[in-house]
């Protein structure tokens, strides 16, 4: 039994029962027909033989509650054959009679690539997966799954996290990342076929993956339902991947995190996600970056920030300071008369970036000693007497008794 069987065959009609017929009614109808059509009763009658097979197949499905539910669901989604089928595809299939490339089969039908297809169509892979996946329901499910895996499909996008030191985030770093993602099955190398067997060309679409159907004045291209658009079918699925061609694998890959990433940033590394299948392109890798704090530096966009204590003498007289950067030391001039809290800019010594690098922003703070030696205290008192009142306007206002 295949997907196509589910969609095209009307098992209820075959048994002559209503869609809501209960199990007893189905059984009764089958018994009657099986008696009438039995080959022993109809020797040499090809029609009766074909009908007998049809009835048996219908009963196989309808007598099994699980398979009957799957069958009903398939008919509901894809239409009970004929005209209803197209409307059942939630996203619709764009591309009409002459459309050379009506849709991206890999995205629509890849077992893992479905997220890329827009809108409702993206769910199609999931629908198939839900209907025919899960295994255990007989050969039909394994076969349907293997078919999905046998065409080119884009690899899955993978998201992972990386914790970087402050310097690594600023300067860029190459890190090994361990991740779990679907990868090409090592047993069948992605073909989905049991080793020693190989997939063969789908007999329904002759390998094209597409069938066309006329409806009124229009012709529609649709993914072939027998092979689910892959052009190939697998009869004997690979035992490792159940015919998917893909298994979940732990991989360690080395990725270059570019310079200048920020804490919480999600960076996309094109083509570093799960490998594609059968020539399909690899998915993308998204890395959410966590950046540790630095004991000295902070960041403001592409600028590095650094707070540097200076003495009163340095602030007053001016000084040349040597300060660290993430890449060697730099010297900077503190002009005479620099106020505490003033920020000095060292161009180009911040976060390296595409185009212009950021700056190093050095904020100077005049250090006020908590304790003084007697000699220092004497010296400060002398200085204070020399400098005089630092706030003459305030003093004047105070003397007037009001600031108005
Ligand atoms: Zn395999
Ligand atoms: Zn086909």
Characterise the protein shown here.
- The protein has 404 residues and is an alpha+beta fold.
- Among the domains are: 155-199 and 234-292, HSP40/DNAj peptide-binding domain (Sandwich), CATH 2.60.260.20; 298-373, Urease metallochaperone UreE, N-terminal domain (HSP40/DNAj peptide-binding domain, Sandwich), CATH 2.60.260.
- It has helices at 3-8, 11-15, 23-37, 46-62, 65-78, 84-88, 105-109, 124-132, 139-149, 166-171, 312-317, 374-387, 392-400, and strands at residues 158-164, 173-184, 200-201, 210-215, 218-223, 232-233, 246-257, 266-269, 285-291, 297-300, 303-310, 319-324, 329-334, 343-346, 360-366.
- The protein has a four-stranded mixed beta sheet. It has a three-stranded mixed beta sheet with strand order 1-9-8.
- It binds zinc ion (2 copies).
- The site of one zinc ion (ZN) has 8 residues, from loops.
């Amino acid at each position: 039994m295949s997907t196509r069987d589910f969609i095209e065959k009307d098992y209820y009609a075959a048994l002559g029962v209503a869609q809501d017929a209960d199990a007893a009614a189905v059984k009764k109808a089958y018994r009657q027909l099986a008696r009438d059509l039995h080959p022993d009763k109809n020797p040499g009658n090809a029609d009766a033989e074909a009908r007998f097979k049809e009835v048996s197949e219908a009963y196989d499905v309808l007598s099994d509650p699980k398979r009957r539910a799957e069958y009903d669901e398939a008919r509901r989604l894809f239409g009970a054959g004929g005209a209803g089928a197209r409307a059942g595809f939630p996203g619709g299939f764009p591309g009409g009679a002459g459309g050379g490339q009506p849709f991206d089969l890999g995205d629509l039908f890849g077992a893992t690539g479905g997220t890329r297809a827009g809108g409702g169509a993206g769910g199609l892979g999931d629908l198939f997966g839900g209907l025919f996946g899960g295994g255990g329901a007989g050969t039909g499910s394994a076969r349907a799954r293997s078919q999905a895996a046998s065409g080119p499909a884009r690899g899955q996008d993978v998201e992972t996290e990386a914790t970087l030191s402050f310097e690594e985030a600023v300067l860029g770093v190459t890190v090994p990342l361990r991740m779990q993602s679907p990868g090409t099955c090592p047993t069948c190398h992605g073909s989905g076929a049991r080793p020693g067997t190989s997939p063969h060309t789908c007999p329904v679409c002759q390998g094209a993956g597409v069938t066309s159907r006329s409806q009124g004045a229009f012709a529609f291209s649709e993914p072939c339902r027998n092979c689910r658009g892959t052009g190939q079918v697998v009869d004997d699925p690979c035992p490792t991947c159940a015919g998917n061609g893909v298994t979940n694998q732990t991989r360690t890959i080395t990725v270059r995190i570019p310079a200048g990433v920020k804490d919480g940033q999600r960076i996309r590394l094109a083509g570093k996600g799960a490998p594609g299948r059968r020539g399909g392109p690899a998915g993308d890798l998204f890395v959410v970056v966590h950046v540790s704090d630095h004991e000295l530096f902070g960041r403001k966009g592409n600028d590095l920030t650094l707070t540097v204590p200076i003495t009163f003498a340095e602030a007053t007289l001016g000084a040349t300071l040597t300060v660290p950067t993430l890449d060697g030391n730099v010297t900077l001039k503190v002009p005479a008369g620099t106020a505490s809290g003033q920020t000095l800019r060292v161009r180009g010594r911040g976060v390296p970036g595409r185009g212009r690098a950021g700056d190093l922003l050095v904020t100077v703070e005049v250090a006020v000693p908590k304790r003084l030696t007697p000699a220092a205290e004497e010296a400060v008192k002398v200085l204070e007497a020399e400098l005089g009142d630092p706030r003459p306007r305030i003093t004047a206002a105070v003397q007037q008794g009001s600031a108005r």
